[in-house]
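TASK: fixed-backbone design
INPUT:
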């Protein structure tokens, strides 16, 4: 019996792992043979089996054997071994001959028996495309005969012209399978899930393809995407047991596509409400980035922060963090912890005391250092109406917190006047004189700002300000890696969040501990990740479209 345990669990884990492996290896395989990894379709054919009430569906739209060439770490081979060794199945002989160009995994239902009294048991549906229906039928018969030899009692039924086979394994290990028509092999963790899948095909108004939300979402898919995921956001929230304070977006679709420089993940959030962008779209990178050093590990740029808190982008973030974390926790505050610390220390409110007067371009950046827990920070804002008063307000807040406002110059920059927020502290040291201790007075810089060109620049320390003033020709906007990354993002857009993974990995792991688990699961991918760039774009007033571009080391 033990040799047959948790087969459906292995299949579910395997389908997810195949997607991870695909992402991890696309960058390498693309350079070798791009034509072989172009999906034959951008939409999953198995959507006809999935209920329109399903919370999530994810599909790999290429044959996993096409990924074998990228299997330098033998991850795919190990996966196949773990999937089939325990069932006595030989992948090469029994599966490879008939497996087609799609693997789809869906959460078919939140509760199989729809009885809340006995707990919630999700129903999982796995659909494998077949190119040889007879061979796939032989596989299903072989699989269940081996389970019978291991002690299971099989049940066979004809349901609406389809032969269903299931066994009587313990509830958590129960497996049901069928070959439906000429196109798909289906597996589920309960026969009822298979019966529902067949009903969904024969009553089209029940399946996902009949959902207006899904139809709108699939129109946003790019051609040649290699993987796609669709999320029914209200049902996902219900699955997580959450009651969201505000439900603006109804669904989300994600696609993965190759790019000569890496991998582009595009996503679209759809809503029935009219939405507005927080700012006008930008046709080129903001000029504020010219003052961000190329050494930055994280940079966020855009325009008009004054309306950010009330924007639909902010509402999306609130909804997403609540869905992912089970609360409205703001993960950005973890990533930009140094700025949050400043906010707490000075008693300021970022939206009211800073964002409210930033109506032009802006850039925020962190410069991590290995020996420091907290990185240096930079804030650049374009001069516009209200900026002068905003800076004066920050000076007043600094003064009210006991800091002095001093004007200084850096030796190499004797013409550049810099305003510094400083704090005087005393330090004692042992005196050579027996009468007592001697004291020294130290000046600690808590922040600086200066005007340069059409921008006001704030930094956390003198070293960072000096780097900005000294290395004007070594800015992030001229960095080849940054240029390659933003070139993959369509214009116009709302700006960029740029993360240099090699420089920020340690910082991110400290602030977002769950990231370490993700790195373990996707080790080949993270080992080769160079940077990622996030942006939002598109002009549809009933959807919010964006993308994440992953640049990899040898792309």
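OUTPUT:
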């Amino acid at each position: 019996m033990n040799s047959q345990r948790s087969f459906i669990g292995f299949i579910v884990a395997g389908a997810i792992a195949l997607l991870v492996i695909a992402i991890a290896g696309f960058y390498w395989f693309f350079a070798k043979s791009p034509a072989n990894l172009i999906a034959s379709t951008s939409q999953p054919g198995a959507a006809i089996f999935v209920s329109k009430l399903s919370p999530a569906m994810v599909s790999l739209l290429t044959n996993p054997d096409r990924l074998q060439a990228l299997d330098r770490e033998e991850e795919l081979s190990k996966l196949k071994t773990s999937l089939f060794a325990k069932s006595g199945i030989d992948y090469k002989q029994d599966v490879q001959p008939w497996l087609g160009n799609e693997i789809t995994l869906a959460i078919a239902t939140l509760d199989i028996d729809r009885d809340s009294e006995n707990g919630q048991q999700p129903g999982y549906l796995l659909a494998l495309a077949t190119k040889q229906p007879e061979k796939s039928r032989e596989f299903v018969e072989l699989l269940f005969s081996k389970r019978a030899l291991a002690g299971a009692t099989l049940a066979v039924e004809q349901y609406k012209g389809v032969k269903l086979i299931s066994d009587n394994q313990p509830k958590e290990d129960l497996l049901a399978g069928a070959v439906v028509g000429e196109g798909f092999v289906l597996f589920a963790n309960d026969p009822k899930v298979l019966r529902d899948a067949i009903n969904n095909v024969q009553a089209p108004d029940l399946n996902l393809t009949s959902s207006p939300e899904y139809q709108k979402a699939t129109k946003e898919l790019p051609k040649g995407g290699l993987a796609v995921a669709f999320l029914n956001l209200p049902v996902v929230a219900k699955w997580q047991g959450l009651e969201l304070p505000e439900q603006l977006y109804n669904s989300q679709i994600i696609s993965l596509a190759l790019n000569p420089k890496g991998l582009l993940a595009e996503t679209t959030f759809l809503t029935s409400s009219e939405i507005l962008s927080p700012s006008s779209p930008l046709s080129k990178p903001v000029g504020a980035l010219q003052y961000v050093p190329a050494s930055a590990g994280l940079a966020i740029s855009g325009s008009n922060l004054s309306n950010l808190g009330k924007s639909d982008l902010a509402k999306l973030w609130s909804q997403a963090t609540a869905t992912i974390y089970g609360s409205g926790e703001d993960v950005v505050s973890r990533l930009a912890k140094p700025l949050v610390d400043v906010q707490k220390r000075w008693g300021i409110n970022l939206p009211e005391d800073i964002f409210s007067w930033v109506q032009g371009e802006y850039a925020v950046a962190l410069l991590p250092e290995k020996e420091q827990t907290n990185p240096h920070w930079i804030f650049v804002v374009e001069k516009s109406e209200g900026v002068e008063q905003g800076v004066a307000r920050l000076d007043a807040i600094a003064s009210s917190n006991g800091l002095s406002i001093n004007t200084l110059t850096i030796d190499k920059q004797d013409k550049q006047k810099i305003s510094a927020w400083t704090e005087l502290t005393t330090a004692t040291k042992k005196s050579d004189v027996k009468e007592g201790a001697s004291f020294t007075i130290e000046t600690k810089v808590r922040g600086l700002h200066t005007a340069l060109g059409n921008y006001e620049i704030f930094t956390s320390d003198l070293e960072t300000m000096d780097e900005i003033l000294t290395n004007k020709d070594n800015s992030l906007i001229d960095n080849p890696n940054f240029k390659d990354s933003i070139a993959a993002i369509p214009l116009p857009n709302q700006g960029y969040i740029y993360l240099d993974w090699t420089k920020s990995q340690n910082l991110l792991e400290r602030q977002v501990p769950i990231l370490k688990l993700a790195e373990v699961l996707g080790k080949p991918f993270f080992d080769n990740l160079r940077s990622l760039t996030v942006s939002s774009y598109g002009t549809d007033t009933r959807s919010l479209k964006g993308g994440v571009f992953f640049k990899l080391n040898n792309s």
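COMMENT: Residues 1-38, 324-332 have pLDDT under 50 and may be disordered.
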